[in-house]
Amino acid sequence: MPPDPRTATLLLSLLLLLTSHCPATAVLPQFREAPAFRNGKDCPISTWPTDPHDPSTIHISMTLDYSTPYLRGSIAAVFSVLQHSICPENTFFHFLTTTHSHHFHDLNSTITSTFPYLHFHLYHFSPTLVNQLISSSIRRALDQPLNYARIYLADLLPATVNRIIYLDSDLIIIDDIAKLWKINLSSHVLGAPEYCHANFSHYFTAKFWSNPLFSGALKNRSPCYFNTGVMVLNLTKWRTNDCTRKLEHWMRVQKRYRIYELGSLPPFLLVFAGNVEGVEHRWNQHGLGGDNLEGLCRDLHPGPVSLLHWSGKGKPWLRLDSKKPCPLDSLWAPYDLYKHRQLISDS
After folding, report:
1. CA distance 59 to 73
2. Average pLDDT score over the chain
3. Cα separation of the two ends of the chain
4. Secondary structure class of 339 (helix, strand, coil)
5. What is the reported pLDDT for 20?
């Protein structure tokens, strides 16, 4: 006996209603397993966190964004650090993510399956810490809460971590990271390559420079531009000087008066510029992603290179996938562990 047409119509309507409210399961990114990297024979044995003051452990922090292609960049960056380290087993990665619930587990599994021997911990960064402080900037990617997580490292990481290297997701290391770790920060909170030839005034609006209450913050300082994608931080001094609250202050000022256009960078310049421990430029060959509008190809800066950084709009994974790479993108490609999905054949 055929079903009642009215019943069939009702069932079909119900099915359509249910499917419209059930989003398709996201395709989780897959990565190839990286080789196991072992310490050289002269490396000390890392005992952190059993010994919270172990001097042989190198602490590195990065963000992991499971919802964007930046995760692919982060994986490549980790791979590059391990491959060029003399003592790779002495590195400990502190990963920050906004991922919740089961995706947190998925992300943890992704890192474990890609780097089975990696020492790491995954920290949840709550966007509510910064949602009310973020102002729109020149590029949408700069407005994401995770872009501001670096401001909260001293709060999120254990108090026993008193020094950290912060790295962006769009870079690769081609030297031993221990060399960067060992730089002498002297009395400074922050160490980074400085670029004093850059026009510092371009990083702030006319409203900032015309108001002495704002521009006076730089009085008696000789500020130079530095890129916040590669920093060595003394977290003990950061906590003592309450640097997080100082950065939040300038974000609140920005929210009300619009004194800059570039996301999380300007607050760092206002708090630290002119009081930074200069690091060799080789540790941040930045700008390889072009500017923030067009992302055109760029060449390396003159001099030796230890770190390649695709800051700017153009990312190597996107340009490679689009078959329109820049010449230097070929240097990033060997560290790409991403598994491309197989095309379905109808044969």
Report:
1. 19
2. 90
3. 40
4. coil
5. 41
d(CA 58, CA 211): 42
Residues 99, 66 contacting (CB under 8 angstroms): yes
Strand pairing of 190-192 and 277-278? parallel
Beta strands in 157-247 (DSSP E): 163-167, 171-173, 190-192, 194-195, 225-226, 230-234
| Backbone φ and ψ of 123, nearest 5° | -115, 140
Per DSSP, 289 falls in state T
pLDDT-derived band of residue 28, with 50, 70 and 90 as boundaries?
Answer: confident
Maximum separation of any 2 CA atoms in the chain, in Å: 91
The tokens describing 160, both together, are 């026993």
Distances, alpha carbon 256 to alpha carbons 132, 213, 214, 251, in Å: 12, 14, 12, 9
β-partners of residue 164 are 233
Assign residue 101 a region (left: φ > 0; alpha: ψ between -120 and 50; beta: otherwise): left
| Burial per residue of 312-326, b for 16 or more beta-carbon CB atoms within 10 angstroms, e otherwise | bbbbbbbbbeeeebb
Distance (Å, rounded) from C-alpha 279 to C-alpha 300?
A: 17
Nearest to 282 by CA among 193, 208, 219, 205: 193
Residue that the structure tokens 């790409």 belong to = 336
Domain 34-286 homologous superfamily, CATH: Spore Coat Polysaccharide Biosynthesis Protein SpsA; Chain A (3.90.550.10)
Is the pLDDT reported for residue 282 higher than 90?
yes
> Containing H/E element for 215?
helix 212-215
Pairing of strands 190-192, 194-195: unpaired
The Cα–Cα gap between 301 and 328 comes to 12
Question: Cα 151 from chain centroid?
Answer: 12
Q: Are 121 and 94 in contact (CB under 8 A)?
A: yes
Nearest-CA neighbor of 195 among 219, 225, 237?
225
Distance (Å, whole) CA 132 – CA 145: 10
Record the pTM: 0.89
Q: How is residue 17 written in tokens? A: 């209603």
